Amino acid sequence: VHQLERRVTKAEREARVAEQDKEETELTLSARVSEVEADRVEKTEAAYTQIQSLRAALVTYRQSL
After folding, report:
1. C-alpha–C-alpha distance, residues 31 and 24, integer Å
2. Where do the record's region annotations for Disordered lie (predicted)?
3. Where are the alpha helices (DSSP H) in 1-65?
C-alpha cells in the first residue's frame, strides 16, 4: 500500500511540474509572439515612412524638371 501511495504522490508531483512547464512555455511563446508582432509593426511603419519620403523626393525631382 505504501509503495502505491508513493507512486501516486510521485505521479501527482510530475503532473504538477508538467503543468507548470506548460504554463511557462505558453507565457514564453506568448511573449515571443508579441515581440515578433511589435518588430513587424515597426518594420512596416519604417517601410511606409521610407515610401512617403521617396514619393516626396520624386515629386520634388519632377518639379525641378
Report:
1. 11
2. 1-27
3. 2-64
Cell of 4: 502505491
Residue partners of 58: CB distance under 8 A and separation at least 6 = none
CA count, 13 A, side-chain hemisphere, 59:
6
CA 5 to chain centre: 42
Q: How many residues can be counted in the chain?
A: 65
Alpha-carbon distances, residue 28 vs 24, 33, 39, 64 (angstroms):
6, 9, 17, 54
Number of domains in the chain: 1
Residue span of the structural domain in which 17 resides? 1-65
pTM: 0.64
pLDDT tens track for 47-63: 999 999 999 999 999 99
